[in-house]
Amino acid sequence: MKTLIKCGTVVLEDEVILGDVLIEDGKIVRIEEKINDVVDRVIDAEGKIVLPGGIDGHTHFNLHVGSNVTSDDFTTGTIAAAFGGNTAIVDHMGFGPKGCDLHHQAGVYHGYADGKCVIDYGFHGVVQEVDADILEEMASMADDGHPSFKIYLTYDYKVEDAEALKVMKRLKDVGGITTVHCENDAAINYLRRKFVGEGKCAPKYHALSRPESCENESVLRMITLAEAAGDAPLYIVHVSSARSAQLIKEARARGQHVFGETCPQYLFLDETSYELPGDEGLKYIMSPPLRDKSNQEKLWNYIKDGTLQVVATDHCTFNYHGSKELGRDNFTLCPNGGPGVETRVPLVFSEGVAKGRINLVKFARIISTNPARLFGLYPKKGALRPGSDADIMLIDPHKEVTITKSLLHENVDYTPYEGFKVTGWPVMTMVRGQVVVENGKLMQEPGYGEFQKRGRIDMSKLQGEF
Ligand SMILES: [Zn+2]
Fold first, then answer.
1. What is the pLDDT of residues 377-435, one digit of tens each?
2. Residue 333 C-alpha to ligand 1 middle, in angstroms?
3. Ligand 1 center–CA 92 separation, angstroms
4. Which of 418, 319, 310 is nearest to 366 (CA)?
5. How close is the Cα of 413 to the center of ligand 1, in Å?
């Protein structure tokens, strides 16, 4: 099977060309200004932008939290992702039963996802207890294609500093990378109890109980531990605060392998949403919380200068009706998280590329190439180059869309981006040479998506420009 994408604006790793992309048996074969091979299908990409498919390195599909389960599972989640221009996701495993080993959750997640996805997928491991056996097991988890793990500094299975350091050191040694949720647990718990005790239970107290200082402190603490661990590679998820990004910038300037991810919610939404009338504010309860608007343009600047390499979503959906509304009288009862996997690419394209903040090469990096590099998928995925999987999205840069819940495929009863007007929309998504979404139609069945056995992370290849 040969496919030719003709006359597109093709975004390569360091330049943009007008040209053609030849695909054979699921791989990119050639990218040239003019290709005249006889093929099975020609896709006319004139006026369209041809990009490596989006890779969302931070989703939570089918996540069980207490008595709640996210409304998106691996089928609805990957369908929504495909409509949003994505060709792969890397999901964060949820916590398992107390005392379980690392492979336990890997098995659980294969059960959730195998045969269920329409795009390719992988899983980040999760560390919930740290002992010699768990540290030892990380090598075989990496062998199985899970070289990245997440640690949490808050919630039920928060790790202590000494444990975090051991994890970072061990993952460095086995060619892995530590990702971390940075918030100061003691301060948050104190503030939550204090507000609830004073009867201050409205959504805005969610944000006030998790101030930026809590994030900034623990970002600096993890950077410090990663340095002590011999420059262990460290990836800070969902950076919401400009001050946290500055700490990452300073560590990188010292030569440390510290990386940062931000999310659309921190670029496009702000804390005033918590004061929306009625119980609307509950829709925005997520951690870290939305911040003061002044952070937004600063975060863009940290994207531009390479301090933040990735925009991922932290997609974690709970319906407003029946789940989020549990927090109506007390914000601490509202499950944390929000949707985003389908709107990431168009929002970042519109606000980033269409508004002139970043160019197309940078856009491709933050949406696809950099997560592929940092999580062991590159160069198989994350770039348009001969030999790579033909994971491609086409964006119509002139298509104007007003985002509204009814337009989206996310299995949740609201979008935090309701009414947002964007310029540019993904109109085709192709995974391994097969079209998955075309002109608003799903073309593949669940089960088309394949598990990606990700490779170990070579720190020497994480140098230079992002
Ligand atoms: Zn998350």
1. 999 999 999 999 999 999 999 999 999 999 999 999 999 999 999 999 999 999 999 99
2. 18
3. 7
4. 310
5. 20
Name residues whose C-beta falls within 8 Å of residue 399's C-beta, 6 or more positions apart in sequence.
Answer: 423, 424, 425, 427
Tell me, in angstroms, the distance from the centre of ligand 1 to residue 174's CA.
Answer: 24
CA of 182 to the centre of ligand 1 (A): 11
Q: What is the mean pLDDT of each run of 10 residues along the chain (466 residues)?
A: 98 98 98 98 98 99 92 98 98 96 98 98 98 98 98 95 98 98 98 98 98 98 98 98 98 97 98 96 98 98 98 98 96 97 98 98 98 98 98 98 98 98 98 97 98 95 86
Q: What separation in Å is there between the alpha carbon of 271 and the centre of ligand 1? A: 19
Cα-to-centroid distance, 233 and ligand 1 (Å): 19
Q: Which of 81, 3, 105 is nearest to 346 (CA)?
A: 81
- pTM of the full structure: 0.98
Q: Where are the beta strands (DSSP E) in 182-326?
A: 234-236, 258-262, 310-311
Distance, C-alpha 121 to centroid of its chain: 12
Secondary structure of residue 235 in the 3-state scheme: strand
Please tell me the distance between residue 57's alpha carbon and the centre of ligand 1 in angstroms.
10
**Does residue 148 sit in helix, strand or coil?**
strand
Q: 456: Cβ–Cβ under 8 A, 6 or more apart, which residues?
A: 142, 147, 174, 175, 176, 376
Asked if 134 contacts 157 with a C-beta cutoff of 8 angstroms, the reply is no
Q: Under 8 Å CB-to-CB from 254, ≥6 apart: which residues?
A: none
CA of 106 relative to ligand 1 center, distance in Å: 17
How far is 366 from 383, CA to CA, in rounded Å?
A: 12
CA pair distance 226, 234, nearest whole angstrom: 7
8 A C-beta contact, residue 56 and residue 72: no
Answer whether 313's CB lies under 8 Å from 264's CB.
Answer: yes
Q: What is the pLDDT of residues 222-242, one digit of tens each?
A: 999 999 999 999 999 999 999
Cα(336) to centroid(ligand 1), Å: 10
Max CA-CA distance within the chain? 73
